[in-house]
Amino acid sequence: MKRHLISAADLSRDDAVLILDTAEELARLADRPIKKLPTLRGRTVVNLFFEDSTRTRISFEAAAKRLSADVINFSAKGSSVSKGESLKDTALTLEAMGADAVVIRHHASGAPHRLATSGWINGAVVNAGDGTHEHPTQALLDAFTMRRHLSGEGPGVGQDLAGRRITIVGDVLHSRVARSNVHLLATLGAEVTLVAPPTLVPFGVESWPCEISYDLDAVIGKTDAVMMLRVQRERMNAAFFPTEREYARRYGLDGDRMARMPEHAIVMHPGPMNRGMEITAEVADSDRCTAVEQVANGVSIRMAVLYLLLGGNESAVAADRTEESK
Amino acid sequence: MTMSDTDKTLLRGAKVLGGEPRDVLIEGERIAAVGSGLDAAGATVIDVTGQILLPGLVDLHTHLREPGREDSETVLTGTKAAAAGGFTAVHAMANTFPVADTAGVVEQVWRLGKESGYCDVQPVGAVTVGLEGKKLAELGAMHDSAAGVRVFSDDGKCVDDAVIMRRALEYVKAFGGVIAQHAQEPRLTEGAQMNEGVVSAELGLGGWPAVAEESIIARDVLLAAHVGSRVHICHLSTAGSVELIRWAKSKGWNVTAEVTPHHLLLTDELVRSYNPVYKVNPPLRTEADVMALREALADGTIDCVATDHAPHPHEDKDCEWGAAAMGMVGLETALSVVQHTMVDTGLLDWAGVADRMSVRPSAIGRLAGHGRPVAPGEPANLTLLDSAYRGVVNPAGFASRSRNTPYEGRELPGRVTYTFLRGRATVVDGKLA
Where does L-aspartate bind (chain A) (predicted)? Predict the structure, then answer.
């Protein structure tokens, strides 16, 4: 494992499979009456959230607490940050308080990278979503969910997603979830197709390890999983598409389209969903939709990431920490 | 040795414009003689054997930040940086606080330049009031002031309204002015953070597409042709822009263009570090753009190198990319970067460097006394360069008040050893006099 988790592109196939397998082990904890391990006792995990995201924050919080870490939640709103404190000074403050890991959500792409490489802090940095760049733990929990459903018998421990056909639909341009998923799924051997109106595909996308299509109906019949991305209604005002209704007609997933998917194929959504926009209620509430399951898997994945970064193995991470504590 | 104490200085063995070694005698403010074995009687003799002698460099595009942002640069520190980089004249951009959009402000900057004594400061006037692109500033008053403004620019912002641009181009014909356009279509660059391409797609940073520069250039060369005026395009950054300038020149239109040293060397691949020292406007482009810009500078399509020296305080770069200021300092590394990218690659000889960094920028700015031949009777505005030198850039040694250089730790060739401003040394043996 690496020292930080900034980008899904930094993970090798073996890194990724190790995280998925570790999450699978840790997931068993959820079935026990006492859902807690002593692994990270005495360690401090800071949730540093410059953007509101209650879902992601409580997921990381639950993960850290189940591993017995001390958790500090630092929200930019109402803190010194809203009074103009820089990222650097916030980081130095957290370092002085002895943060072993900083889970950061930031509106600026690259902020976690900057935090990890600037020398401001020594702890591990976990990217919990940065601007329109990446959201690697989301991609990991998505892959975890796919592996459980698509690997045939059992949860697929030790396996990757070789040959699985994954379709990601929606606002790719502004989506950190899409970027992380494209990297991770390619690493795991899946065949990814992005589907969006041309206005919502990034200029320069041709270097990505995936296919691009503007036609959802052309790909929906040959896919193992369809991931619907949230489309913000504001995009309409910036002329990315003419109206909500036109978007929903061409790129939304309704019952008719779902019926044309292969029988085993699942519908995924990172949440929060815009019902009636990218997904109809009928699809969202069907048993093929894994949105709620993804939330549960998110806790297991984040436990695995924190566990591996903060001393769950004997690699450089552990040695590093010993050095620093001298 | 105090250079200013003597009236006569003899430079021994200088390679004038990179040619055969010559002696150059400076008497008072002027060059008295150029030849071999000149009589040293009564002169301070400096042995500069093997060094390159160029006319003092002229920068068409410098941000001196005073008045208003003296925390990043002042006219004094900026002109010291200029002298250290071999410049004898700089054009001070108008985006100060207050904006240089009145005779009062341009005269203030002009006067501060006179007082500094390190380098001539020619103020640039804003095209529109407050750089807002709505109402023409008093261009005539700025021209008629003591500052004698001839170059007008809203640099940092584009004069995007086609009618305002047309009127400005027409209006400055009355006094031989030129509009220096920062070509950036504003709607196409809302939220822009870096070059739009493969790297921006991966990094999730807002794209600054080449077409936003090229569409304005296309419009403005056509406007300049239509009204018969002069337009100068600031900091060309794309291969497409080069093609447009080449086309406009082929028509015989009065169009000139500049390129910055950083656009001759650096690419958007560097942004992968998310280090804001690489954040600049226009943004770093691709390798193909860099090569097209070098070729265009070599063949004269691009007239000159201009630094776009843009000092920023440390805190404005010591942060996340999105929050960081755009710009790089460049005065003290410009000649080294040009040697590295143009001379050492065989694209340009030293006479070509003199043309692109002194003669042509002076002509565009109609600046008297600069960009002149190295010949008897001419003003002794001169720069000497040790081109054999190799050194690692260390911003701690900069004369500029700011340190935001993208070259820190990079080895670059060449070192300015002497700069003379009208016969008086502003740099002696590589140090400010």
Answer: 83, 176, 230
